Amino acid sequence: MLGRLIINADLVVKTGLHIGGGSSSVEIGGIDNSVIKNHKGEPYIPGSSLKGKLRSLTELAHNKIGKNEKGENLPCNCGECFICKIYGVSASEENKSTDRLPTRIIVRDAFLKDSIAETMRRKEKDFKDLELSYTESKWENSIDRLTSKANPRLFERVPEGAIFDLEIIYTIYKEEDIENIKNLIEGFQFLEDDYLGGNGTRGYGKVKFENIRFFTKTIKDYTSKQFGDTKASVDEIDDIWIGKLKEQMIDTK
Ligand SMILES: [Zn+2]
């Protein structure tokens, strides 16, 4: 192993975000579909949701979507391509793969930025019309295809302007893993042009990665060092940037 790259970013909600909380969550104010929340009752983005979305968008873009017998989409499980190397393969395939290295990426659960959570609680600035503590509700109408009857449902959403603290840890075993960072960042771009969570076709879930910061930890000197300048956006990760990272990760070994 050469080291680790730690990526921190602000994930900014641009249009109401709905990541479902499941049936066990407490329903408030007649909401049919609540969002997932932590023990403090604050909405968050499960790392698994974000990782899954980044992976599936990357697979879609690179024509790597697998199918099961029923024709449903499955993640690629070849163990050879860059997508399997970044995002991992199932445990049974891991042993068969020639790569035989564990999944490179860990996506942490992303929680609301403290200052934003505070502003939401106080219902200040952009959040003065917020109906619930951290969320808003929106009616969506769907038409029953058999009876043509309208079926209005109330969705809970994280409002525009919410910001989540994102942390991704990417382990670098060999030089090729440094090259693959471009593909990881490309996934961020795909997501910005797509949506996170549910109801994307109704305009929900537009997000943006802002204020991206990179930290490296090389195995020889396992302390965190800021790498490069603070990046404002995903388009600044180019070959020059990758070259500099290689120098830092490999020369110190
Ligand atoms: Zn693969």
TrEMBL record:
Name under which the protein is recorded: CRISPR system Cms endoribonuclease Csm3
Pfam families, sorted: RAMPs
InterPro entries documented for this protein: CRISPR-assoc_RAMP_Csm3 (IPR013412), CRISPR_Csm3_endoribonuclease (IPR052216), RAMP_III_fam (IPR005537)
UniProt keyword list: Antiviral defense, Endonuclease, Hydrolase, Nuclease, RNA-binding
MF-aspect GO terms: endonuclease activity; hydrolase activity; RNA binding
Residue ranges occupied by any CRISPR type III-associated protein domain in the UniProt entry: 11-208
One GO BP: defense response to virus
Protein family (similarity comment): Belongs to the CRISPR-associated Csm3 family.
Membrane-spanning parts: none
Coiled coil: none
KW 4Fe-4S (keyword) present: no
Organism per entry: Clostridium drakei
